[in-house]
Write a structure and sequence with these properties.
Helices cover 29% and strands 38% of the residues. Strands 1-2-3-4-5 form a five-stranded mixed sheet. The longest helix has 15 residues.
Length: 84
């Protein structure tokens, strides 16, 4: 049983949870906020999204087959959950 806490650092409530529980794994899109797993250089097209994931495990390119910032966030959340 995993008890990882994962929160969206782009969201005010997610930041509050991360402050309340210091062991929370955070994710977000690179907009200047600090997150453990974040996406930078996000690019959107009609066929999907691409970005660079910056994680404690290193940086790597990401292709998401769905367009939209929220889909990039969903992919980051899945990565954070897998690491957690």
């Amino acid at each position: 049983l995993t008890r990882a806490r994962i929160a969206n650092a782009d969201d005010a409530y997610g930041r509050r949870l991360a402050e309340e529980f210091p062991d929370t794994v955070t994710f977000g899109v690179g907009d200047g906020r600090s997150a453990g797993d974040r996406a930078v250089d996000v690019r959107q097209s009609f066929t999907g999204s691409s970005c660079t994931a910056v994680t404690p495990d290193g940086e790597f390119p990401v292709q998401v087959g769905l367009p939209g910032r929220f889909n990039v966030l969903n992919a980051l959340a899945a990565w954070a959950a897998a690491r957690g």
